[in-house]
Structures are given as structure tokens and as C-alpha cells.
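INFO  loader      accepted 1 record
INFO  loader      residues=218
INFO  predictor   begin
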Amino acid sequence: MPINKNIRVIFIGAPGSGKGTQSDLLAKKYKIPKISVGELLHKLVNNSISDSINLGNLISDNVVCNIVKARLCKSDCDNGFILDGFPRSINQAQYLTINNIKINFVFNIKLSYKVIIKRLLGRRIHKSSGRIYHIKYNPPMVDGLDNITGEQLISRKDDNINIIKHRLKIHNEQINNIINYYKQEVKLGNIISYTEIDGAKSIDLILTEIINKISYFI
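INFO  predictor   done
INFO  writer      dumping C-alpha cells
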């Protein structure tokens, strides 16, 4: 099957592994949109969905897949895109294939759950843009304020210890099926590469590794 060599990237990995940070940096470098499923869902005016997200639960595949498909149909995705946090289940991964949505690169950022918990408890978000900071690892220039707008940063409602552990449990139940699926997709020639990344490295080193992988093929 011919592969579309536009830069079409998926980031998978546990919550807090660094997917969002790397997605932001990669989107800026290649001037393609970062599509965060979490951000899309948070924008929905639907109390049941909002409550489910805040409790760390997965949203139904049907709802998530329809939202992602609608976003990918927009013209700014014609030359590539980055999916941050999608797919989160094997059904979502298969949905992309069934709907002929080509993916070139899958990056799995791996990090110990102990480190992830520390990261998430210190994570801060700029609500309107989705920009991500950390009080220790990636602090804003001014404490508590977004670098660009100067607006107040917030903690996500689901960044508390009980919900974090619940989210990690769900991730652990889903991730192996997704990994095996994309390894098989590489063997079939449907995607260019599946790559596991050590999330404990510095932000710059991880970004360089990702860019080098993409540059090797495109």
C-alpha cells in the first residue's frame, strides 16, 4: 500500500509521559496542527463528558472517533497533523485504518509510573491554548503565568493522585494492544515506523530523537 509522506504523527504513552509537550514542539517546527483529543473533548458543552474526563475515565470510542474525524477533515490537516493522545484503545486505532486515515509515524513515550505521578501533580495548563508547563521540569518565565499571554495557569481537575492512578490503570489495560497493532502495521507497510522513546530524557533530547527519525524517512 502506498504511504502518504506528509508528516502524520501519533503520540501514544501514559498520561504525563510528555506527549503534549513534544506534540507542541513538533507542530511548531513543521507548521502542522497538533490535535489533542483531551482539548477537543474539554471544549464540548456536555456535562456528562466533562464529568467523565475529570474522573479519569475513557470517553466512548464512537464519540471520540467522530470528533477526531471531523477535526482531520479541516484543510489545515492537508499537509500533515499530530495526534496527541489518540488512539487510546484498539478500536480507535482500527478506526483510523478503516477510514483510510494514513499515519506515518507512531512514537510511544515511555516513562515509569512513579515519575509520571510526580510530573502530573506539578503540571500546570494554560486553559485557552492548552500550553503545558511544570513547576519543576518546564516552569513558566513568571511563576503561575502563561509565557505568551500572561494569563493565570491552572491545574487540571484530573491531576490529583487518586484520578492519576485510575488513569494509569486504564492506560495499562489498553496500551499493549495498541503497541502490537502498530508493530503489525509497520510489518504490513501501512506506516513507516513505530518508535519507543525514553521519556526520562530531557525535552530537547527527546525532540531531537523524534526529528531525526522523521528526517531519515522524509
